[in-house]
Write a structure and sequence with these properties.
This protein is α/β, with parallel strands linked by helices. The protein has 11 helices and 10 strands. Helix 2 links the parallel strand 1 and strand 2.
Length: about 325
């Protein structure tokens, strides 16, 4: 799930020459950039953030500090981002659809909208799945669904936090299968996995990177994926669609700055991130952890974000009004 500091720095060192932006006014020599991760350490978002920060340090020749600010289903960390000075020195990992649940839900009083963020680069997509402990009584996905139908809200399912992507995925599964689970919310994928492995919940929803370590050690079984076809990262695991439940779901994660960040700073960061995210070293690190690289630059990422609002936003609003 995570890499040592030495391994991360070796990724960064393999990526770029030492001074992509030295001739630019941004960043100032020696001035640190903060990359906020609005989740606990150890999850997939944290892993990618640290691998990317190592590359940015090498590319820009300035320190890049990864700061975990979990809580509120990522709202605490993202609030810190939009309140930061828009100068390019404070960035954050932003996950969709999680961020949509903040600004489409009036009760959350997030204080921000899509326009509060300046997209810089989309980094990766995550396909989702549902898993149980290796010794679970649910031997396949159909057995889990049948049990949930026979006992509404009788099956406890861990997720990374209320209205986070794994929670949205669970609600989509409920609607598609006409069942009801009891969602158990944690502050990130790592504590959710601890609850599953510890036997405190019956199942867990999450991305491939959340499951890879425990799957490799034989502690869990992945029952089904949300992909249209078999996920090559989870060979032999059936899709939910193949089991008669029509669920296709993926999340999108990128890096953003506060709105109003100078275009020159955005351009420097975008150029560095493009070199990092298209390098063999960075891509191999992600793929090896069950994450699918999917780079977009600032303009394409902004357009994608708007389309995501238009297509997934209605689903979020339906969940809120439920």
């Amino acid at each position: 799930m995570s890499l040592s500091r030495r391994a991360l720095l070796s990724i960064g060192g393999a990526l770029l020459p030492a001074a992509v932006a030295r001739a630019q006014s941004f960043p100032e020599p020696g001035r640190a950039i903060t990359l906020i991760v609005p989740y606990t350490p150890g999850g997939g978002v944290d892993f990618v953030a640290r691998a990317t920060a190592a590359g940015l340090e090498r590319a820009l020749s300035v320190p890049v500090a990864v700061v975990n600010r979990p809580g509120g289903g990522a709202q605490i960390g993202l609030t810190g981002l939009v309140r930061a000075r828009p100068d390019g020195y404070t960035l954050a990992m932003v996950v969709k659809p999680t961020v949509l649940s903040h600004y489409f839900d009036p009760s959350r009083q997030s204080g921000y909208t899509r326009e509060s963020f300046q997209p810089i680069a989309h980094l990766y997509s995550v396909r989702y799945a549902i898993a149980v402990r290796a010794d679970s009584r649910f031997h396949d996905f159909r057995a889990l669904i049948d049990a949930a139908r026979a006992s509404p809200e009788g099956i406890n399912v861990a997720d990374a936090g209320i209205m986070t992507a794994p929670h949205v995925m669970l609600r989509q599964l409920e609607r598609a299968a006409d069942v009801r689970f009891t969602a158990v919310h944690f502050n990130g994928g790592a504590p959710a996995m601890n609850a599953l492995v510890g036997g405190h919940v019956d199942a867990m929803t999450g991305g491939g990177s959340d499951f890879v370590p425990a799957l490799r050690t034989g502690q869990i079984r992945v029952l089904a994926t949300t992909t249209a076809e078999e996920d090559p990262l989870l060979p032999g695991v059936p899709t939910m669609r193949s089991a008669g439940v029509d669920v296709i779901f993926a999340t999108a994660t990128g890096i953003a700055a506060p709105a109003g960040t100078p275009p020159a700073a955005i351009a420097v960061l975008e150029t560095a991130l493009a070199r990092i995210a298209t390098s063999d070293a960075w891509r191999s690190a992600l793929i090896g952890s069950g994450i699918t690289p999917d780079f977009m630059g600032a303009r394409d990422y902004a357009a994608f974000w708007q389309r995501y609002d238009e297509t997934v936003g209605p689903v979020i609003r339906d969940m809120i009004g439920r």
